[in-house]
UniProtKB/TrEMBL annotation:
Organism field: Acetobacter oeni
Protein topology in the membrane: Multi-pass membrane protein
GO molecular function annotation: amino-acid betaine transmembrane transporter activity; antiporter activity; choline transmembrane transporter activity
Main location (coarse class): membrane
Name this protein carries in UniProt: Multidrug transporter
InterPro entries from the UniProt entry: EmrE-like, Small_drug/metabolite_transptr, Small_multidrug_res
Pfam families reported for this sequence: Multi_Drug_Res
Keyword Iron-sulfur: no
Residue ranges crossing the lipid bilayer per the database entry: 26-46, 58-78, 84-103
Keywords, in A-Z order: Cell membrane, Membrane, Transmembrane, Transmembrane helix, Transport
Organism placement in taxonomy: Bacteria, Pseudomonadati, Pseudomonadota, Alphaproteobacteria, Acetobacterales
C-alpha cells in the first residue's frame, strides 16, 4: 500500500506542476485550482508513504520520477526541447532511483 501512496503522490505532483504551467502564474482559475488541489493531494499521500518508506528513499523516488515525468510531459505537450545532456541527466536520475531501491540497505524495511 505504501508504494501505491507514493505513486498517487507522484502523479498528483506531476498534474499539479503541469497545471501550474497552464495557470499562467496563477492567473487562470481552473488550472490554478487544479494545481493547488493536486499539490495538497500529493503532499498528503507523500506523508502517508513516509509512514513506512524511509524519508530519503521516498523523496528521491518522488522527486526523481516527478522530474522525468514532468520533462516528458513538457516535451510532448508544451514544446520543451530535450537535448542529449537533459536525457543523460534523466537517465542518471532513473538509475539512481533504481540503485537506491535495489541495493541500498536504507530501503529495506
Amino acid at each position: 500500500m505504501n508504494r501505491l501512496f507514493l505513486a498517487v503522490a507522484i502523479l498528483s505532483e506531476v498534474i499539479a506542476t503541469s497545471c501550474m504551467k497552464a495557470s499562467d502564474g496563477y492567473t487562470k482559475l481552473v488550472p490554478s485550482a487544479i494545481s493547488i488541489l493536486c499539490y495538497v493531494v500529493s503532499f498528503y499521500f507523500l506523508s502517508q508513504a513516509l509512514k513506512t518508506i524511509p524519508t530519503g528513499i521516498a523523496y528521491a523516488i518522488w522527486s526523481g520520477v516527478g522530474i522525468v515525468l514532468i520533462s516528458l510531459i513538457a516535451w510532448l505537450f508544451q514544446g520543451q526541447k530535450l537535448d542529449t545532456p537533459g536525457i543523460a541527466g534523466m537517465t542518471l536520475i532513473i538509475a539512481g532511483c533504481l540503485i537506491m531501491n535495489l541495493f541500498s540497505k536504507t530501503s529495506a524495511h
